[in-house]
Design a protein that fits this description.
It is built from seven helices and 14 strands. By secondary structure, the protein is an alpha/beta fold. Strands 7, 8, 9, 10, 11, 12, 13 and 14 form an eight-stranded parallel sheet that branches. Strands 1-2-4-5-6-3 form a six-stranded mixed sheet. The longest helix is centred in the middle third of the chain and has 15 residues, at 132-146.
């Protein structure tokens, strides 16, 4: 079967694509349908054009467009550009919000390095249906653009009770609490610098906030750390990105620089 693939181009460098197939020297990746249309008619690529591939396992590889015709194209994998690197194990658990904003959360959280997106239905959640396939496609496109070597997994939505019942041992949870006692997020994170390599998660409530009973239950759990994001009331999507940025800056890979890239 032809490889399922998403495509993103950036000015001045090779097109960057996420694929699911293993990558190795001499391997062939086949494209069909709208992907071929994109290569031929949008990017106007010709045989021999460079295309960079990644799959979340084998690093990033330079390939070349071997053939492109109506309805089909193929890529031949060449040299490895970057080996696969370890990334922070950071989840984002969030109550679903309206479509434009939830799409933005998926895109920006991918750019900020999350490893999984977990939609969580709380008592005040107004939007309960989540299009997982659409959010996954958005995450793929964002990963292609931001130079990641992986794509976060988008999970099916679950209730808050179910999420907490199945919570994996050892994963710490930063609860962005809009009410009650909570330390500033930076203060909390700096007190856990020795735990930077551990698995973490950030949780954001719905637009109407957590129910008091939910907050009371959450703060009693030993792995939950309630934190504050300052004196202003933030929208749910703003709070998610602010918390992720703080975590990456203090415990994550915020000290690193983007990879040097060349179109050659």
């Amino acid at each position: 079967m032809p490889e399922k693939i998403s495509l993103t181009a950036a000015a001045g460098r090779a097109t960057r694509l996420f694929v699911e197939q293993d990558l190795r020297v001499g391997g062939e990746i086949r494209l069909v349908d709208e992907r071929v249309h994109y290569l031929r008619h949008v990017l106007r690529l010709e045989s021999g054009a460079p295309v960079d591939l990644f799959n979340g396992r084998d690093g990033e590889w330079r390939s070349s467009l071997a053939a492109v015709a109506k309805g089909h194209a193929s890529l031949v994998v060449g040299r490895q550009l970057r080996p696969q690197a370890a990334e922070p194990d950071l989840w984002l658990a969030f109550a679903p919000i309206k479509r434009a904003r939830i799409d933005s959360v998926a895109e920006k959280a991918t750019e900020l390095g999350v490893s999984a997106l977990l939609p969580v239905v709380t008592q005040h959640t107004a939007v309960e249906r989540v299009n997982v396939e659409r959010l996954q496609a958005i995450a793929v496109e964002a990963a292609e653009q931001c130079e990641r070597l992986s794509v976060p997994q988008v999970r099916a939505s679950v209730s808050l009770r179910k999420l907490l019942t199945d919570w994996p041992p050892g994963r710490r949870l930063l609860l962005c609490a809009e009410a009650g006692d909570a330390r500033p997020i930076a203060e909390t994170l700096r007190s856990h610098v020795n735990d930077a390599a551990a698995p973490w998660a950030v949780m954001i409530g719905p637009e109407g906030g957590f129910a008091r009973s939910e907050l009371d239950a959450l703060v009693k759990l030993p792995f939950v750390m309630p934190v504050g994001l300052g004196p202003r009331i933030l929208r749910a999507d703003t709070a998610a990105l602010a918390a992720l940025a703080c975590w990456q800056a203090i415990l994550g890979d915020g000290q690193q620089r983007p990879p040097h890239r060349s179109s050659a």
